[in-house]
Amino acid sequence: MTGHPAGPPARVAVLGGTGWVGRHVCAELTRAGAEILVVARRPVPSLAGHPFVPLDLAGAPTAELRSLLADFGTTAVVNATDAANATDGWTVGEPALTRLNVDLVERLVAAAAGLPRRIRLVHLGTILEYGETPWGTVVAETRPPRPATDYTRSKLAGSSAVLAAARTGAVDAMVLRLTNVCGPHPSPVSLSGRLLRQLTEALRTGEPMTIDVADARRDFVDVRDVADAVALAVASRVTGRAVNIGSGTATDIAAVARLFVAAAGFPAATLRERRRETVSLGGSWTCADNRLAATLLGWRPRHDLRSSLRDMWRLATTA
Q1: Are 255 and 195 in contact (CB under 8 A)?
Q2: Active site positions, annotated
Q3: Per-residue pLDDT at 43
Q4: In what order do the strands lie in the sheet with 242-245?
Q5: What predicted TM-score, i.e. pTM, was given to this entire model?
Q6: Whether the predicted pLDDT of 1 surpasses 80
Q7: Rg of the chain on CA atoms, in Å
Q8: Measured at the alpha carbon of residue 99, what is the angle toward residues 179 and 47, in degrees to the nearest 5?
């Protein structure tokens, strides 16, 4: 399906723009020449150069969202909100997940559809919407989603609302289903954020960095590559499609920790692994087929896992 002609829209509202992914999205869209409106509960210093609207998005009514988009002259909106970014996705209750991952998305779709001229909507979903997948499976967009947790069901419901509206012509929109995000300035509740915090603490105390690792493999994609995919999606003609954004490689969690310690420049003895079962939102294996992103958006990951972890440590220790 096609919508807008190609070319970056001039004025983009980024909901959840102060979050980990949102900040990188704002930076990439700015480099692409867009004017950015950041919408979130609280401002952050790194985005001080952009217009900012303080708003509790979980409770914002449709009319307020529509006015916000209209007043800015918005030509595209990116929904980078996610209830898991605020805590950890495991401990958030179902009502809170529904408010941000479903209700907000439905109100945003209604707000965009009610504007006098059509705008572009890019919604960030998750690879976990497909549910648990057998080891060795490379998940393509043709796989029927079967989420099994409150979090993944709420994310699928939000993505489905966007896709349904796009397919009826109510909005011009697409969904990007992200794998595990890694890279600079991570969210503290992400695996990358936990690794960064644990290594910092180990160096402070002189004790080994102890991590709990399960028998699991994940697909990791650098946050800067995610931002690049968002910018391409904003400028794309594609509508009514969900597209996987991932590296296409599944990496053992323990190997990620070892790679991080080595990329940070420390010996293997810095790390102590403790094998135990851990809670997962999407099973023990994730690996995305990213070929559709290359076909529809011209997107490919540019940062490998080692360089992503190295840059994460370098920027955290030189900031």
Answers
A1: no
A2: 151
A3: 94
A4: 52-54, 35-40, 11-15, 76-79, 120-126, 172-178, 242-245
A5: 0.94
A6: no
A7: 19
A8: 65
